[in-house]
Sequence to fold (459 residues):
Amino acid sequence: MSGQLLHGDPDAHWSGAALDSRQITGGELFFALSSGRTDGHRFVGESLARGAAGAVVEEAVSPPATGGLIKVDDSLGALHLLTRHVRARLPERLVAVTGSVGKTTTKDLLALMLAKRYAVARNPGNLNNLFGFPISLLGVPEGTEWMVAEMGMSTPGELRQLADLGRPDFIIYTNVRPVHLEFFESLRGIAEAKAELLEGLSSEGIVIANADDREVVRIVARHPCRKVWFGLEQNAEFGAESVVELPSGGSRFVFRVGDDRYPASLPLYGRYSVENFLAAAACAHTVGLDIEEILEAAAQAEPGSGRGVVHRLPENVLLVDDTYNSNPDALSQAMVSARALEGRRHWAVLGSMLELGAGAADFHRQLGREAVGLGFAPVLAVGTEARALAEGVSEAGGTAVWMESAEEAAVRAGKELAPGDVVLIKGSRGIGLDLVVEHLLGDQSQQNQQSQQVEEEDE
Fold:
């Protein structure tokens, strides 16, 4: 890291890294980053007290009672230098998963598949940027054969830097969709930013790409690497036929590999999850896994938090928690999938879709009209940008209620919920609609306790 040891035992060992002192479990290197919001140097003492092996700092701090201090010119730069050094030997192979939507589900599915044969690591949660990915890689255990690493970006240049840090052996492109348009002029601009990841692909690297996505096809086709294609619509090597979304959630379909066909099922909500399965399966099969191993792993999949989790509540209520994030394409697909669930009535709590730039109002208004066409009533629209969504609902003859905050929506949703309902809750993370989910789940739990108490008193 081009640093200087200020304090501590030069022979001491470290294991893992952290940027947040609250995440220290013991043995990590704590990197004190300075930013506009906070200064990590304030938490050096706390991190060492929690058991960090040492702290990497840009400025002198009081010598600790335990642990070491390493002085560097730039803490973030030092984090990246150390990441490159470790990547030279760990993991043995790395798969980078990128795209506008579906990265996390694809990553999790592929990790399950590869774990059938190999020692596998993956970046937890959404640690997929220039801060999170290095922390993930520095935590990879010795002996890791494969790392499945989600890599994301919001501005041009980020994936180029991540490619330099990760040096992927495989790259999976899920799709290119209208997200982060606040920072890009067009969908093509987003695709070109995604293409930066190809600059880090190893000389014998392989790209797994979505044949249904024109922008993915465009950026991948011009690269000289080996390409493996998947898709629901195009005649790709890996595909799915006769996809049926089950009324209780999940799907069944025919998995196509070349000219061969295999019956398959996936316990994940939404047709788009089948597309994510195809991306993961194409990579796993190219690595050398058998179809049986791939399908067995997929059958064990579980949704990530806030990513299409179907909660089955008393009185035949289905609550779809899709609150992790939202964009126009993802919301459209989520509504179609929610309508496939059996229920007496379908309604939705839809939050603002953020970072859509100048076209934000049009996107929201169109999705409001689409919600009415699919039969969602009422639609609770939450957040400043979602006011246009409510307008779209009204223009299409539907019932909309606009609210400024998730707190208001939680109260209203609690009053709206009735037996037999299917309710979809989806919005960008910044809107905080997970609060609505927590409120509804809490209400149901409280009602169950009250019902149980009445039953016991009757007895």
